[in-house]
Amino acid sequence: MASITLKNVSMAYPLLGSGVRRKVTRGQLESAGALIKDAESRSRSVQALRNITLTLKDGDRLGLVGRNGSGKSTLLRVMAGIYEPSDGVVDVQGNIASLFQVGLGINMESTGYRNIELLGLVAGYSLEEIEALKPEIAEFSGLGDYLNLPLRTYSNGMAMRLKFACGTAFSPEILLLDEWLAAGDPEFKKKARARMRSIVDKAGILVVASHGKRLIR
Question: I want to staple 49 with a disulfide (CB 3.0 to 4.6 A). Which of 11, 40, 99, 117 is the partner?
């Protein structure tokens, strides 16, 4: 049974290298969260999440809405285990597919095929299971011989194709989506929408962040 439990989770980004003498005007960071300081005002951080408590179980679908800088992507990354919260407890049960920005979780110096292996291993699959899925992933991505080349030679759209193909091939119990999936050419978008309908129906838990009301519905 898949589950996500957050108890009083907070996340703050330190303002590294900003110094304590530099003045921050009141309201300057309102859209990104509150500016917080330690007791001696020697360090400063921007509060992205504050005391978030929630429980998600099999069958739950959660849409995250809010303006830029409201903490949607941070919350997704905390759920995925990419960020460790500043305070609170995160307990996630079940294998996760996290489809965030293109560069996250891939190795730009490795080939497309090697990245399929790396993404599969991170998802908790054995090399034998990944090898069995490689032909399907390669076919869906439509990248052909480019899979033999390092990802640094790919366009942003090509890298997105590969990551989407991998993330949706491993039948996740928990699916975490950021809205970058809107990228891509029309032909691939059509394939992606059909794949997403199938994956969303099968996923135990879905959490999606988006500005699009239609997508959230």
Answer: 11
